[in-house]
Amino acid sequence: MSSPPSNCRRLATCTVAAVLLQILGLSLFVIGFFPVKPTLSGLSGAESYRQPTSPGSVEDGRILAPDQRRSLYREMSEIPPQFDRLVIMVVDGLPAEFVLGKGNKPPTKAFAESMPYTQFLLSNGRAVGYHAKAAPPTVTMPRLKAMVSGAIGGYLDVAFNFNTQALLEDNLVDQFYNIGWTMVMLGDETWIKLFPGLFTRYDGVSSFYVKDTVEVDHNVTRHLDDELLSNDWNLLVMRNPKKSSENPYAHNSLQILNTNILMVPKLKEMDDIIKLIHKSAILHQDKTGSRTLLLVVSDHGMTDNGNHGGSSYEETDSLALFIGLKAGCPNYTAATQNSALQVDIAPTIALLFGVPIPKNSIGILLSEVKGSLTGGCHVLYGNGRPFWTGE
């Protein structure tokens, strides 16, 4: 029969073993569910235009000024940049189906009539829309990272969504800064936190005004007229956080607005901004000869009850609308039923503006861009992803 001290030692040993086993199990769960994604450090440079077997780097031993780097990229890529200025308009939580429809059906009559100018551009081949699938988690910060870096984040990014840190991965904003671009940011301060010190001018607001549908958008648009008249910027980022006063607990809920009178006016407001920017871009091109691309995107979609974060179709159906490409085939179906991945935006923009594709990008070139480069048309096959047919 064991003595009392022996029983105590055995109990203590079992307790310690049980605690260690729990810690091990928790560690395995955290490592498996929140993996640390390996990334390549540094920024892509001139070496990205060389064959992988080519020895050395073009920039070895040289520190290039931004204008020299820009000229070098243009020389090595052998594809002249198609645009001189870029306007990125981010509409928080806008489902692509509100603008492009769903399946083979156009958007509802109310939504289509609330965006007459945008629908005119689509029907005349002057804009191309994509249902750009967003990878989960469908929350703001990791979706913005995907659009500018072409890389997919992990669920650990959900924690950083509430405490945004500077983006250290290779991305388009850093690439533009490296070729001497002047950049302006209006709207949600998430962009300012992701890219500290890169914007020459900015006016940021908190992304958590969950009850407001007016003041946050006004903060974005109040400077717009002045910025569109200015010639000193190359990149203008506008972040329009859309909120629902009907459901203060649904963060950035555009889907909730679908059932009340606020939805149509907000889409009309967005259409007016698109019209203003596009008309200004045309005037700017007439005066200076430079071309402006307007990219309207949403970070994610929404479920019917205003939630997001998961992997349902409604949550992952985000918008990517390119306005300013060379006029293609005036085919409304071909301009609205394209499908893409959100990570495809980064390499596509990189090609259009003559900068290296970010190192960690897994996206592909959107085929409509090839049509824009050559003046060709695109058609749809099978799964809805577009393929180009040249002239």
TrEMBL record:
InterPro entries: Alkaline_phosphatase_core_sf (IPR017850), PIG-G_N (IPR037674), PIGG/GPI7 (IPR039527). GO terms for cellular component: endoplasmic reticulum membrane. The keyword Repeat does not apply. GO terms for biological process: GPI anchor biosynthetic process. Keywords: Membrane, Transmembrane, Transmembrane helix. It comes from the Eukaryota. The chain crosses the membrane at residues 12-34. SUPFAM superfamilies: Alkaline phosphatase-like. GO terms for molecular function: CP2 mannose-ethanolamine phosphotransferase activity. This is GPI ethanolamine phosphate transferase 2.
